[in-house]
Amino acid sequence: MSMLKRLPLYPMTTKVDSQGHLVVGGCDAIELADEFGTPLYIFDEIGLRNKCREFREEFGKRYPDVLVIYASKAYANAALERIFNEEGLGLDTVSEGELGIAMSANFPMEKVYFHGNNKSQCELELALKWHVGRIVVDNFHELDMLEKLVKKQGIAQDVLLRMTPGVDPHTHQYTSTGTLDSKFGFPLPLKDKAVERALKIRGLNVVGLHFHIGSLIYEAEPYEESVGFILKLAAEMHKKYGLELKELNTGGGFGVQYTLDKPAPPTAFFAEKITSAIIKGCKRHKLQLPKLIVEPGREIVAQSAMALYTIGVIKEIPGVRIYASIDGGMADNIRPALYGAKLEAVLANRMRARDSGKVTISGKFCESGDILIRDIVMPKLVSGDILAVAGAGAYSLPESMNYNAFCKPPIILVKNGKVRMIRRRETLEDITRCDII
Ligand SMILES: Cc1ncc(COP(=O)(O)O)c(C=O)c1O
Predict the structure, then answer these.
(1) 405 phi and psi, to 5 degrees?
(2) Which atom of ligand 1 sits closest to the CA of residue 217?
(3) How far apart are CA 22 and CA 24, in angstroms?
């Protein structure tokens, strides 16, 4: 009965009821599928809030001054951002759109950090106009633009400088950002020039440094190495140019458990390793402890959501493979097709059914690469079964698309048996709205 073993990968309130149905947030998943249709994304509010608290507590009890900011690229939604604000988190945004969602959620702008490797002038103007807490400057072009903008507007803006530490986080090439050969941040050989230039710009207050080395990181060493690098750099830059490291932002990237065979270290593990590396490094370089900013995205939302699909066509190629096609796939979750992400699933309507053999879960889109899960052991599937995919909360929805004119699915939030829709399903009208005949 391997399906029951997969339950720990699901949102924290997930259970199985006496009918063998999956239940989340006190709601029967099959009733939700009937009411809202599939594909359907379900967020567990208790699980989400619990994750926010865990981050604040684990870092907060080990370090004097910490702000946890949610990296909204993992999934930006105004209703969820209200929850993150209630839980005391800040917000990492990376585009005009993400800033706009934060604004629509009434998120306190002083707790918003604005990132991006190619911010446009419009985006920078908007960030300044809305008084974001920090702009995380990525490159010289951005420094030039900011210099003109703050001068023109006669304002001052707090900024961090994003440095590329030249550290390999041992993750997929597509989720690695901290090596020298990266489009993000000031590269190591240009660190002096970057700090010297930024400090000379009147109206920019350089309050600290930032690094983010990648996503889906399961080891502490890349963080420890990066902290060591950045503190050494800060001490050097203090001596040479008088840089004061008031804030240190160590990015996000914490790995989560998507499959049974790849566990992830708990939040406490990363909190311990990162905070002790900073405390040790500051002592060594005789630096005051800076305010620490951590910006998890995936770990806050990934496991707090599941996606429901209906099984349609089942195609058996004797001696080769069984394909079971679902009513979604790469258009709502491109992660498996993009970088080989592995996922687990269960049958939400028959949780106690016995395993039968391997099956490949394919999507409905016109690409052979549209495979959600290859070779998963499942009970014998029948059309109409409801498949629940775990770990659906991060990067699937924001990377979703309208391929084959697919209408993106609705998102609901469940808690104590109550359901709240936080994004409706797209309609044909949404699909054709921007076309001009
Ligand atoms: C600058 C920055 N911070 C934080 C994150 C969040 O990473 P994760 O969702 O893996 O925690 C990202 C993601 O790419 C990022 O680019």
Answers:
(1) 50, 40
(2) 10
(3) 7
Token code pair at residue 145: 């633009």
pLDDT at residue 330 in the model: 98
Nearest atom in ligand 1 to the alpha carbon of residue 73 is 13
Domain boundary among 269, 296, 323: 296
Quote the tokens at residue 285: 């370089």
How far is residue 273's CA from residue 267's CA, in Å, rounded to a whole number? 10
> Which regions in the chain score pLDDT beneath 50?
none
Question: Which helix (H) or strand (E) covers residue 96, if one does?
Answer: helix 96-104
CA 405 to ligand 1 centroid distance, Å: 29
Do 393 and 246 share a structural domain? no
> Where do the H-state alpha helices sit in 285-334?
298-301
- Please tell me the predicted confidence (pLDDT) of residue 324: 98
> Are the C-beta atoms of 213 and 167 separated by less than 8 Å?
yes
pLDDT score, position 182: 81
Q: Among 151, 166, 153, which residue's Cα sits nearest to residue 126?
A: 153
Whether 320 is in a domain gets the answer: yes
Model pLDDT, residue 241:
95
Residues 6+ apart with CB under 8 A from 108: 85
pLDDT of the residue at 166:
83
Domain that holds residue 20: 2-43+302-432
Q: Whose CA is nearest to atom 3 of ligand 1?
A: 251
The token pair at 314 is 């089942």
Domain with 357 in it: what CATH number? 2.40.37.10
